[in-house]
Specification:
hydroxymethylpyrimidine kinase activity, 9 helices, about 20% strand, alpha/beta, binds (4-amino-2-methylpyrimidin-5-yl)methyl dihydrogen phosphate, nine-stranded mixed β-sheet, 9 strands, binds adenosine-5'-diphosphate, thiamine biosynthesis, UDP-N-acetylmuramoyl-L-alanine:D-glutamate ligase, globular
């Protein structure tokens, strides 16, 4: 039997070790039963110990990937991840204005878990002025929220303030991810919705360094749920539960910031009939 499947698009960089970036997006979307297409913006030579090298792709092949997808597929939601530099952010912005790929999740990837820079400093202004205003949901972690707002974030009140500042840049919905608050005993994300409603999404903080790709996975899951037609609030709640399962039911791969167990949510979903 042929099935009409929801289709989503990842616009991101490749992580050769398979844990973060586009590879995390593909695994997540597949697990959420959504067909995943890709626009590759940059390639990294990367493992769980760090990023050894990275190279952005030429504009021509990025534009061509967008056109190929728009000419044939029926993308219902998309997300951005690593965009490398200002020029590449602009290329992506132009294509997102040209083609309708549905709701956009912007994960403003700046620095990898191991500390390597994945976005040049000059790109921050382009992201703030040109990409975030297109976003249905923007999902910075705490260091990224600090860069986007010029605030220092040490408390929940600071996260709320940062969320409001980022919403004022033009994003409809904002999540300030709390994964980097290492001293807290919960992993608490602040969610600010388009209608002004806000809430905290909290889970037990798992004491592990195997969190490579958590942010990519969260944003890819939101995109997948939106591609299915799920509402934004429900998509965000599902994505948080999905990520929590991937960390809780961990796997041992590599010697550093290891990747997630992308299939762990199968058990949770089966038990809870989600
Ligand atoms: N140690 C942890 N235990 C439980 N949840 C975590 C942990 N680290 C991160 N998370 C969750 O993973 C998601 C991604 O957060 P974060 O790690 O801050 O993003 P990024 O990968 O962009 O740095 C968030 O929902 C956050 O709460
Ligand atoms: C290509 C690519 N994209 C994104 C990330 C961020 O992932 P994380 O912050 O979990 O290391 C990464 N490490 N590599």
């Amino acid at each position: 039997m042929m099935t009409d499947f929801p289709q989503a698009l990842s616009i991101a960089g490749s992580d050769s070790s398979g844990g973060a970036g586009m590879q995390a997006d593909l695994k997540t979307m597949q697990e959420r039963h959504v067909y995943a297409a890709t626009v590759l913006v940059a390639i990294t030579a990367q493992n769980t110990l760090g990023v050894q090298d990275s190279v952005p792709l030429p504009a021509k092949i990025i534009n061509e990937q967008f056109t190929s997808i728009a000419d044939d597929l029926a993308i219902k939601a998309c997300k951005t991840g690593m965009l490398a530099d200002s020029e590449h952010v602009s290329i992506v912005v132009e294509n997102l204005k040209k083609y309708d790929f549905g709701p956009l999740i912007v994960d403003p990837v700046m620095v990898a878990k191991g500390g390597a820079t994945l976005l040049t400093e000059d790109a921050v202004i382009t992201i703030k002025e040109n990409l975030i205003p297109l976003a249905t949901v923007v999902t910075p972690n705490i260091p990224e929220a600090e860069v986007l707002t010029d605030l220092t974030i040490n408390s929940k009140e600071d996260m709320i303030m940062a969320g409001q500042k980022i919403k004022a840049l033009g994003a409809k919905n904002v999540i300030i991810k709390g994964g980097h608050q290492a001293s807290a005993d919960t992993a608490s994300d602040f969610v600010l919705l388009e209608n002004g409603h806000s809430f905290w999404l909290s889970s037990k903080r798992i004491d592990t360094i195997r969190t490579h790709g958590t942010g990519d996975t969260l944003s890819a899951c939101i995109a997948a749920e939106l591609a299915k037609g799920v509402d934004v609030e429900t998509a965000i709640i599902t994505a948080k539960k999905y990520v929590e399962a991937t960390i809780t039911d961990g796997i041992i791969v590599g010697h550093g910031h290891g990747p997630l167990n992308h299939w762990a949510y199968r058990k949770v979903a089966k038990n809870a009939k989600l």
